[in-house]
Amino acid sequence: MKKLDQRKIRTHYRIVVLCALSVFLASCLSWILEKPSFVLREIIVSPRSLKETNLLLGLEVHNPNRLDLTLTSFEYTVSLNNEEIGNGRLEKELLLPSSSVTRVQAPVVAKFKDLGGSLKAIIIGDNLLYKIEGKADIKTALGSLSFPFSKEGHINLRINMGK
């Protein structure tokens, strides 16, 4: 009877140690894992109506890690020439293979009134100052991590008049 009790105690002890180790590894994930980077390569403009336009952000997501990541949530706000024009979120999970760059298309619906001074630059095709910022959630075999991101630079827009 004593031997059976000792086995139960050892089993419970092992379970507690494994749980504690899992929590420790998950909390250290931000030290081990390098955050993916987001670079805006293009914005495709497709007029939707007289008041709104669809913007399709062509992003490159670089995963510098030696393990695959899954982008589980991606919420973003876009500004052109220092004016916020819209926001969006990706609705489906996306696999980011290890040590690679993945192309992502992220939609934004913008109202023409929100484009303000950027509208002329969009029509002419001038170089625009952009900023994309938000929050991304990733999942790995070791756990999950949520982090804010922000990227800014210059970009030319492509207007797509067809539907």
Describe it for me?
The protein is α+β, with helices and mostly antiparallel strands. The protein folds into 2 domains: 1-32; 34-159, Immunoglobulin-like (Sandwich). Helix content is 25%, strand content 52%. The chain contains 4 helices and 9 strands. The chain has helices at residues 2-27, 29-32, 112-115, 118-124, and strands at 37-47, 52-63, 69-80, 83-90, 94-96, 100-111, 128-139, 144-155, 157-159. The strands form 2 sheets. Strands 3, 4, 5, 7 and 8 form a 5-stranded antiparallel β-sheet that branches. β1 (37-47) and β2 (52-63) form a beta hairpin. The chain is elongated, with a radius of gyration of 23 Å. The N and C termini lie far apart (77 Å). The mean pLDDT is 78.
Brief summary:
With 163 residues, the chain is an alpha+beta fold. Helix content is 25%, strand content 52%.
Output mean pLDDT.
Answer: 78
Q: How many discrete domains?
A: 2
- Work out the number of β strands: 9
CATH architecture of the largest domain: Sandwich
| Count of helical regions | 4
